[in-house]
Design a protein that fits this description.
This protein has helices at about 5-15, 20-30, 35-40, 50-55, 60-75, 85-90, 95-110. It is an all-alpha fold. Helix 1 packs antiparallel against helix 5 (about 60-75) and helix 2 (about 20-30) packs across helix 3 (about 35-40). The relative contact order is 0.13.
């Protein structure tokens, strides 16, 4: 597992929350300090729910949010779709159709307009 996510979370905590201790952030996230330590050291990947809470408590702009979700997705041994994108796809039938169409076009080499 790479530790870009953990390092980024530490950076956000220091930048956005004036270097408050991770113990306080853990309390805000309703997780144990050990779990927070494991996240920041790259030993655990936070759930989509925890990532969503981080977006709020760190008051992330869109670019920062995207980076957080992308780092989380690529932290898994087998990279995953970022949780925010997965949630959007799951809850939007039109997006599923568009993605399947794009996949078909890529696989067949045909482009339909």
């Amino acid at each position: 597992m790479n530790n870009k996510l953990g390092k980024y979370i530490v950076e956000l905590r220091n930048k956005k929350m004036n270097k408050i201790p991770s113990r306080q952030v853990a309390k805000m996230l309703n997780i144990t300090p050990q779990y927070m330590c494991d996240i920041e050291s790259g030993n655990r990947i936070p759930s989509a729910q925890i990532l969503s809470k981080m977006v709020v408590i760190f008051d992330l702009n869109q670019a920062e949010k995207n980076k957080l979700y992308d780092y989380a997705a690529t932290s898994y041994k087998d990279s995953k779709v970022p949780a925010d994108i997965a949630d959007f796809i799951i809850n939007n039938e039109e997006v599923k159709k568009v993605i399947r169409k794009m996949m078909n076009e890529k696989n067949t080499g045909e482009v339909s307009l």
